Amino acid sequence: MSGTLGRVRADLLALVPDLGTWWYAVALGPLLLAAVLLLAAGRRAAPPGHRVLHRGSMVAAGLSALGVAGVALDRPVLEASWIPSLGVSFSLRPDGLSVPLLLLTALAGVVATALHLHPGREPRPEPVDLADTDPTSPIPVVRGEDVPGLATYHACLLVVLLGALVAFLAGDAILFFVGLELVLVPMWVLVARYGDPGSDREGAALRFLLVTVVASSLVLLGILAVATATGSTDLALWAGEGGASLGRGSQLAVAAVLLVGLGLKTPVFPLHTWLPWVHATAPTAGSVLLAAVLLKLGTYGMVRLVVPVVPEGFAAWSPLLAGLGVTGIVWASLVCLVERDLKRLIAWSSVAHLGFVVLGLATGTQAGLQAALFGNVAHGLVSALLFVVVGGLKHRWGSADLGRRRAAVREVAPRLGLALVLGMAASSGLPGLAVFWGEIGSLLAAWSPAADRPEGWFRGFAVVAALGGALAVAYTVRVLREVWAGDRVEPRVPDAVLTERTALRLLGVLVLVLGLVPTLLLGVTAPFVEGVLGR
Amino acid sequence: MPDLPDVTWSDLQLPSLPLPHLPAPDLWGSPAHWAILATLLAALAGLGLTGRSNRLAAWVGVGGALLAFLATCWQLYTLTQIEGARRGAGTIGALPLGDLDAPLRLLVTWPLAIVAVTVAAVALVVQGYARWYLWYDPRYRPFAATVSLFTSAMLLVVLSDDLLLTLVGWEVMGWCSYLLVGHQSTRSAATRAASKALLVTRTADVGFVLGLLVLVAGAGTTRTTDVVRHWAEAGPSPALTAAMVLLVVGVAGKSALFPFQDWLPDAMEGPTPASALIHAATMVAAGTVVLAQLFPLLSVSGPARLLLAVLACVTMVGAAVLAFAQGDLKRLLAWSTVSQVALMLAVLAAATMGTGPDAALQHLVAHAWFKALLFLTTGWLGVLVGGTAMALMASGARRYRVLRHRFGWGLLALAGVPPFVGFFSKEAILGTAEAGTAATGGGFVPVLVLASVGATAPLTAAYCMRAWLVLSRPTAAQGHARLYEPDPVERIDDFFDEPQVVQEAEGVERAEAAISSSARMGTSALMLMTLFGGVVLLLPVWGPQAHVDLQLMAATLLLMVVSALLVRLAAGGVRTRDAAARIPAGVSLAAERGLHADLAYRVVVVTPVLALARAVAWFDAEVLDSWVRGAGVGSRLLGRVGDLTSPRRATPALALVLAGMLALAALGVVTA
Lengths: 535, 672
Fold this sequence. Notes:
Number of helices of chain B: 30
Oligomer: heterodimer
Helix content of chain B: over 70%
Shape of chain A: globular
Number of helices of chain A: 21
Number of strands of chain B: 6
Radius of gyration of chain A: 23 Å
Structural class of chain B: mainly alpha
Structural class of chain A: mainly alpha
Radius of gyration of chain B: 31 Å
Distance between the termini of chain B: 129 Å
Strand content of chain B: under 5%
Distance between the termini of chain A: 35 Å
Strand content of chain A: under 5%
Shape of chain B: globular
């Protein structure tokens, strides 16, 4: 049986053309080209209609996804001299750590460009003293429209993708940093210009920019410190040295600077407060990218720049990091019990999931790192799914306020309802869906952490994190009870449209597959983890 | 007292017959794979591929359950052909988690193989029944898919040889019960009950997860057999005790032991097939299976056994008392499930390594047959009379003769009357508890269990008798015949009024026409198993057993008869023949509300947690977030300051820049 499967797999792989480093052109080229074209088109007096823009952007993201898949299969290495005077090279080197995140980014890109930009609308008027009997009011089907600035919107999405892909592919610290920076401004534009007009767009965008720029500065500081100590910006070389060229004191300092910077991006408690604001304001596609891609840059950075590079410093800070992680789990889950805005609630649950990821990272064991990497990808899929659902609901409802009585989603929009149940179940750690394996792995690792970690503390953290798991079920039940169940069918809202359905199916199937066969992903990351911690 | 012969269980067991060696087809995977995968795929296909067709969904659901049933039956046969009767199988391959070994394997042994057959059979019956019961339900498809998933999860727990897989099945069952109980999501009562079931069980599961962590971390592997071997070799230790206590807490949640008992009766808001599935073979029985798999560890950790025994005994007796006072037949059966599951778990606490955990599994199997029968029959009658309240159910077994034997046999088995299946399993439990008493020289745990089982038997007989008296009350027509010889004084029944819904003329024909043949066949099969299931319990494959104390048996039977007679006496003179009508109204109302456990949950858990959550949300918004806001405001202010201090008009600024450039150039010229 397995022999046949292996043969089929080999045959299929043989069909893939061997493009070598040209795969990078396929992966990155369409994004760059389309972004430039869209920006140029947007500046014309009569920009093309929404269909052209939407499809063009989707094609670019799709092509790029194909390229990323090729990169993931072939894993070509590109080394080119870039700034020789500084010892910086343009090197792209995908490995077991980055391949899952590259694929996730490509997928999130396809989903994000496929979703329609829902133009901001006036919040639906409150019914006049008909608290229990909202009159039927027609809500139009969610379709694409000619929105001013649509070309810029799509260009921003593509640039975010481009930056994230570069960051994940980079084999050089400076190139990584360039990618990290590249995503910020387009994301800021997405939030500030295309965000929910009913909320404080300027404030949310400002928060985002301030926090992430501060974070980037810290990351740059850390990178420069390591680069001066090692005399190179090659990430593989950094990982190979394992902090040999830095003393204990400088390891501690560098780890602290990098962890604070990346912790702001991840975000780790107590640096998380910007996330719910930005998510509540960002357009749906922006939320999807933010959750599935941007937050991953923080955790990816930790694994790339901190864990192998300054191991001693990381080990010293890891009890604190794990403590903050589990505090974040319980903290965010508790807030979810009383949060009134559905989109913010999902953002809060992200903080809780990333708490598990950080806990797994901090344990310093292979099991913990594996669980963290798995949880990272799983969170990306699940939160993207949930933001597609919740963003759609918010647009249909006119706001995401849970305090208002609305039609039960299960009654009026069963497809969205099913996706919501799937997403919330996955988010609460239901086994058989992706998030579970990351969470249970983190717990297992936290119970028996690496030898140089304080075992008692980590066991305490595991207990707290397990309690957080129960709280996750509590807020899941709350959401389903308030949004999904019920007997009200007024005011009616349309069910998922084709693009939403496709996106939800894609993400849902992946969540299920990863949940049923976690070895698919764990097998990809295992060699990397062994390379980092098996020494 | 005459000298009674000494009978041991092995004397009663059937002789083992050599089975012919059938030519086994070389199938992919093992039967365990087939059973789990068939139901899992049926769940996925039922949700994803059946489109809008209820018929197709029914075929998928029933087909999956049928395949699982056949696979588990085949598994029984393969076990007879294997030396040592243990068969392992891999699943998705080991998880690459570094030092931690997570092979994710399955293992079949005799008792668990029989449990698996029971689970698959009950699931098959329930699927067939649900097709009829939810014929007009627009949400039949998700229901059937959830039932399939539920079955798959339970089979996974039963056949798992890996604590992670056990946890997977365990949690999936919790979610499935949420979906099934809350099936009619338009009713707020159903949604509320479903949320409660999930929250209560998941809260207790924190203990389960932590116990599992301790066990796995100590053994360095998640494989159950290795975990058991490791800890059994290490001997009793505080870590093991802590792990088992935590596991017992988790099991108490899932199996609705005190103080988590209240979710189960509320779960009656779900459709009857779901109740039958949750109560008979899955979910609540899962705790028994898991503790039986880990029995060698349980038996050496005293505090865990003590905790389990106390919780189970309190629940067993308390639930039996509460069952008597319920005004709804389904709720009566629910409380009886609480009591019977506690019985299974109590015997696990009382058993020793000498007797083994098999008595609990035997009772699990027996309970599955008769409880499924009782629930499905109740649902059938409920459809006929329009509800499951005792008032509506009165005379049901007389009006619809086809239900008479189903109810009668089910209740007799529940009460533990020979020769029904419940009798055998109860004797096994009594024997095991007594052996435990003898082995420990009258230790507290076995004595407590023995006393509680002894007290529960007559209580069970009492509520069974009460239910039977109401169900088999002479109908009005039969009553009219006796009208001319009236009873002295009729007691006014403060519980309920006469049934008005269905008139007497609608008799047997209607009852039979109302149900589909497959659903009817399913209940008939359950009925047969209720009567002849004792044979299964006497198979020579069950592990070492205690001897049967004939005196104890006689005493228990006597107690049961006395209590039944007392109930009959109490029922006399009540118009509806409901003995519970003699209970003061206040008491019976409190009993129906589960002694206000809801209030306790709310005061002890929900209110503090929500208060904490509000405090956290306030702190986050007002304190933690202030630095971010402060940064925003600060940078704006800084920008404003820069804006004010820099020149506004372009020309002077440009002039300044030019002047600076000139100065620089001059500097360059001079220094060069």
